[in-house]
Amino acid sequence: MTGTPRTLAEELRTRTDRGLVGLLRARPDLLNPVPGDVTQLATRAGTRASVVRAVERLDRFVLQTAEALAVAPDPCPYDTLGALMGGDAGDPAVAAELPRAVAELRAQALVWGPDDRLRLVRTARELLTPSPAHPSPTGLGPTVAEAMAGMSPGRLQEIIAAAGLPTTHDPVTAVAALTTLFADRVRMAALLDTAPAESVAVLDKLLWGPPYGAVTDRPAPHLQWLLDRGLLIPSGARNVVLPREAALHLRGGRAHRAAEPVPPALSPATERDPQLVDNAAASQAFTALATVEELLKEWDLGGPAVLRAGGMSVRDLKRTATALDTTEQLAAFWLELAYAAGLIASDGEADERFAATPAAEEWLQLPDHARWAELAAGWLAATRAPGIVGTADAKGRALAVLGPHLDRSPAPEVRRRALALLASLPPGTAVPASAVLARLRWERPLRGGAPAAGQLPADGDGSPAAPGPADDLRSRLAQWTLAEAELLGVTGRGALSTHGRTLIGSPSDSTAPTPAETTAAATRAAALLAPLLPEPVDHVLLQADLTAVAPGPLRRPLAEALGVLADIESKGGATVYRFTPGSVRRALDAGRSAAELQEFLAAHSRTPVPQPLAYLVDDVARKHGQLRIGAAAAYVRCDDDALLSEILADRRAAALRLRRLAPTVLAAQTSPDQLLDGLRAMGYAPAAESAAGDVLIARADSYRTPPRTAPAPVPDGPPSPDPTLLAAAVRAIRAGDLAATAERKPVQAPAPAPGGFPRTTSAETLATMQAAVLTNSALWIGYVNADGAASQRVIAPVRVEGGFVTAYDHTSDEVRTYPLHRITGVAELADDSV
Question: Domain Helicase XPB/Ssl2 N-terminal: where (predicted)?
């Protein structure tokens, strides 16, 4: 195709396959379904929903360029656009970056036409052009022609006369003359030199927008001076507007107060030793593993109930925060992290509650670095945002942790981009969070909120939002990302760790990875983290004050056994356990004997077993099981009748309602569990027994949900197409375009039906098909499928027999067989069409 393209479709036809692939990759929504030809592709690229999605993904300078085109003449020469972006004085940085911005708009099919006739796609122009209901971020108002539409011819003549222009014979030339005056820098400057100082001050207030103001029925003289010369134009009963041409003169030709061709620098930068950063990140990664493990242990017998509306109650969140010794907001993060990794879920029972999943058992058996890899991969791909827990939803209800409505689809992209910015810095370099947020706002100025489909993010007045405020969704997601990355050990002391760089891959890769690629990257990162994690130890240091000090992370069997025998008193670099009568009794209830406990302590202590601890174990064991509790409702059995008499005489036993059945048996009107707790509260050490008289071992059986999968992320629009799909889509579009635009030989009567499909008789169709087989030529056919849908195709017949034609279909790029009775007609193509 030669000459200047007249439409976007014509320009798209001139693009190479690589150019179409770039368009479809940048705007994947155009692929669903695959367009039938280039005309369909151009039509879909101009729909409001698609244009809004494309505009939302422009960076600040490219968006400013589109906004300048929206207020420029249509079509706009490149030099005019450059003057709008750089002003009359010019700006070298703008001049250097403007070709990139125009090329980006072209690549995304938002701008088309040669450089001397740049055209913004009509839908984009409608979105970005200033109007009273939707002011432009440029702060410009309507043109003189738009603002004066409907003004009386007499008033127009008065205005141009006051402005020093000769009167005209019609309104059109009057408006054109005033527009030319406002665009003439010399003549406009001379006119403003005669303006009162108060009039100039009014223009200065409206200069950068909004361009609208209010006046009274009797404007002051300085306002009347502006109204008389068209520098302010009435825009309603008591409103006026500063026309666009006048504002541009006052601005020195600039469409924006400040063009931003270059992204904000990531500064000030603080350089740290990369090894110290890695060690700090590894320490925090180990803490993260310990916290999640403690959460699973806390829920070993089942977690809290699920609210009717989904999620956990505020009270249960507070309890979990207390158990983890952290704040409620951090507890929400750890809960959502475990949920994203598939370690906790609801059990789905009638009395629904949360619990650990079977996958948690497998996770607990993995090495520390492999466990971290699963947490990191789940966090990186998750769309759930724990930072919004406790905020109100659209109906004013507080959002609950682990509940619905916590998904924010931009989260994975923001997470990866924030970390990629840190990865672009030298190893060990940290920058303030404000610098990262400023860069992200420059890269996606319109993606701060979550607008409805087909709408740009809006300010309170409904106008397209200016570059997002600091508290918009995208900025909050970035802030949470930086904090969560530190908690998870991806960063250390504000800088990205070595394993963190491996986790996110190449900082320049804008394509979202697949789940498999994310998992593989997390595994590679974990291999780098493994040498930095502390090695588990197999011993403790017993002390005379009935405590044990673990000098590092304990091996799992030792930690589990010691957790039953002693209570954790403090955590940190070394964990301190305290032995109490209650904790020793707990170990005895679990089936361990005094001798086994003494042997366990001696085997795992680097110091001798202190005498006070040995005495404590023996004393508790000696009393343990003297009293036997069973179900009558309940009874107490003891060979020492004096001990039973002592219990009966104790006033604290009144609530148990005991009575003697025999010298060695007491009956109680309470359950065995309550009787056990009551006697233990009185200082005794009873043991439960079975109906056969055997001691019952109180072993905690863990509770798990049925098999559960991790929550699926909510996608942020269509997925990125793979190269195979892109190549196939371009082939299909080219083939469909060939079928729609190929030159055809005239079709004899009967004429083609409305819509352009050929119509021939069955005999003519068969004869033409057979001739095409002999001459190896291509044909244009009309075809109706089994569903009654009509289409046109370009085929090269190979064989005609049995009422079917086998042909190579240029439209679908494959060999297909068509029933002849479904072919509505056939026409030969011009010799140079295929």
Answer: 540-662
The set of residues, in sequence order, having a beta carbon less than 8 Å from that of 469 and lying 6+ positions away, is 448, 475
Does the pLDDT of residue 110 top 90, yes or no?
A: yes
**Residues 179 and 56 occupy one common structural domain:** no
Alpha carbons 184 and 99: distance in angstroms, whole number:
27
* CB half-sphere exposure, 103, CA atoms < 13 A: 7
What is the pLDDT at residue 453? 29
757: in domain: no
Residue 451 banded pLDDT, cuts 50, 70, 90: very low
Please name the residue that has the structure tokens 């023996």.
618
Please give the Cα distance from 439 to 433 (Å, whole number): 10
* Same domain for 504 and 368: yes
Strand positions, DSSP E, 123-272: 212-214, 233-234, 239-241, 270-271
Tell me: do 806 and 657 sit in the same domain: no
Can you say whether residue 310 is alpha, beta or left, with left for phi > 0 and alpha for psi between -120 and 50 degrees?
left
Residue 679 included in any domain: yes
pLDDT in tens, 168-225: 888 899 999 999 999 999 999 999 999 999 999 999 999 998 899 898 888 899 999 9
Residues 278 and 325 in one domain: yes
Supply 18's token pair. Answer: 């690589």
Q: What CATH number corresponds to the domain at position 779?
A: 2.30.30.100
Number of structural domains found in the chain? 6
The answer on 606 and 527 residing in a single domain is no
Is residue 121 located within the same domain as residue 177?
no
Torsion 402-404-405-407 (CA) sign: positive
Among candidate residues 623, 653, 675, the one where a domain is terminated: 623
Helices and strands in the chain: count of H runs, count of E runs:
33, 25
Q: What is the DSSP string of 531-584?
A: GGSPPPBS-BEEETTTEEEESSPBPHHHHHHHHHHSEEEE-SSSEEEE--HHHH
Residues 78 and 34 in one domain: yes
Domain boundary among 607, 623, 639: 623
pLDDT of residue 830: 62
742 within domain boundaries: no
| CA 246-251-253 angle, 5° bins | 85
Q: Are strands 628-630 and 687-688 parallel, antiparallel or unpaired?
A: parallel
Write out 170-208 in H/E/C secondary structure. Answer: CHHHHHHHHHHHHHCHHHHHHHHHCCCHHHHHHHHHHCC
Q: Residues 142, 243: contact at Cβ < 8 Å?
A: yes
Q: Provide the angle, in degrees to the nearest 10, between the axes of the packed helices 433-443 and 60-71.
A: 40
Task: Centre a 10 Å sphere on the Cβ of residue 37 and count the other Cβ atoms it contains.
Answer: 22
The one-character DSSP state at 478 is H
Same domain, 397 and 520: yes
Give 770-791 as a DSSP string. Answer: HHHHHHT--EEEEEE-TT--EE
Contacts (Cβ under 8 Å, ≥6 apart) of 571: 290, 325
CB-CB contact of 668 with 636 (8 Å): yes
Is position 751 within any domain? Answer: no
Q: Which residue has the higher pLDDT, 270 or 737?
A: 270
- pTM for the model stands at 0.76
Beta bridge partners of 605: 540
Token pair recorded at residue 453: 């489909």
Q: List, for residues 529-559, the tens digit of each pLDDT value.
A: 999 988 888 888 999 899 989 888 888 788 8
